[in-house]
Amino acid sequence: MTPNLNLPYRWLPSGTEPLFRHAPDPGSLVALGHAVWRVIEVAEVPPADWTQDEREYVARYHRGERRPYRVVLRPAGIVGDDPRSRDRDVHLRACDASWHVYPDDHYPLCASCAEPLPCREQMASKIAAASARQMDRYSMEGVCPSCEEPVTSRQKSLTLPDNLEIPGGPPITFHAGRVECRYAAREYEIRWVEADPNRRRTTLSCPGHVTNHNDGTYECSELGDCRGPQATHPAYSVCRCRGCHVRGSFGCRPGPDAQLLRRDAA
Asked: Quick check: bond before 118 cis, omega within 30?
């Protein structure tokens, strides 16, 4: 039995306690991939055996404070000292992993399938219910799927013709003027563009870097392709042009090809 480390959902085993930044103690029980495992051995990986990725990870993020380690796991149902038990052992390697640890040897199991709770059947039911609920949000034309309220003609809105949640379903309209709805609209629009990037472009988000100049203008690295000051950008910075701030409130000289966005137009 090998633990499934790539579950298509976030599994939070019942009765466990999260362990971050450290390896679990030998002898403890951990939940992994819808199974319970006994930690048989924990050993630090010698630096000479580190992979290139591990070296870069340690150097970049932890400066040697957290080092790669090996963990040997054995199915919790195997007891005794039979040497053949080692045939069921699983060897894992980690550096900055998180673990779900049971506080003792008493842990909840499903009476139907004997898997640790919540079991795969429960997770499948939960995902199916969530999927149905998600589809309901996108089934009513003219109703914002974020707040589930109608969008009137007097409200600022974003309408996209393709329904990504219900193939062949009605067009989707978001409140674009409400903060809580605008975020959902922006994320949906990004997905919509990714479905046909050659013919579509975002309007609520721009991939460019914005520089805030000292004369009341913004300069975007996307230049003429900038979506405008109303669009969100992944990065912002204050102008560092030579001499820009020397003469007080004005005096900035952005490049001749800069797309200048007036601050009061946002």
From this structure: yes
Report how far residue 77's alpha carbon sits from residue 5's, in angstroms, rounded to the nearest whole number: 20
pLDDT of 235-245, one tens digit each? Answer: 877 776 655 54
Q: What percentage of the chain exceeds 70 in pLDDT?
A: 85
> Measured on CA atoms in the order 225, 230, 233, 237, is the torsion positive or negative?
positive
